[in-house]
TrEMBL record:
InterPro entries the UniProt entry points to: A-crystallin/Hsp20_dom, HSP20-like_chaperone, Small_HSP
Gene3D superfamilies attached to this UniProt entry: 2.60.40.790
Protein name (Swiss-Prot/TrEMBL): Hsp20/alpha crystallin family protein
Naturally occurring in which organism (per UniProt): Candidatus Ornithospirochaeta stercoripullorum
PANTHER family in the record: HEAT-SHOCK PROTEIN 20 FAMILY MEMBER (PTHR11527)
């Protein structure tokens, strides 16, 4: 039919897209998935702790929730930007309206889960996971009986 409407990136049942269409499809295709992205993280290890750093520009500490359950660290967050459209202002792209994520990390043995701490500064969430002191073998002194 001449009046059929298909999404621009729906390739099912259509002829191959031209090079021009492919270019714009790849450039514009991620716009609707932008709000589903999760923060990039770095995980560091030292002798006494692990550190997880997550990039979260534009977020604040009240938007982030961190929990530990059954040796799994859960980081989640949600931001809902409800700016009203003013007279004469028209949004062409609205990516900041609502963003949510959830990320989980399995924790290794040997962590002091009660001492986990978090800090949020300049758009970087830093979670410190201290290790428990390794148990040293206990030396038992043998005494000669009297």
């Amino acid at each position: 039919m001449a009046n059929d409407v298909t999404r621009y990136n729906d390739r099912s049942g259509r002829r191959d897209l031209s090079l021009f269409d492919d270019f714009f499809d790849s450039m514009l295709g991620a716009w609707d998935n932008y709000s589903q992205r999760i923060p990039a993280v770095d995980v560091e290890e030292s002798a006494d702790k692990y550190i997880i750093k997550a990039e979260m520009p534009g977020w604040s500490e009240k938007d982030v929730k961190i929990t530990v359950d059954k040796h799994v660290l859960h980081i989640s967050g949600e931001v809902n930007e409800n700016e009203k459209e003013e007279d004469g202002k028209k949004y062409l792209i609205r990516e900041r309206r609502h963003t949510a994520f959830e990320r989980s990390f399995s924790l290794p043995d040997g962590l002091d889960e009660n001492a986990i701490s978090a800090d949020f500064q300049n758009g970087i969430l830093t979670i410190t996971l201290p290790k428990t002191p390794e148990e040293q073998p206990k030396r038992i002194e043998v005494k000669i009986g009297k």
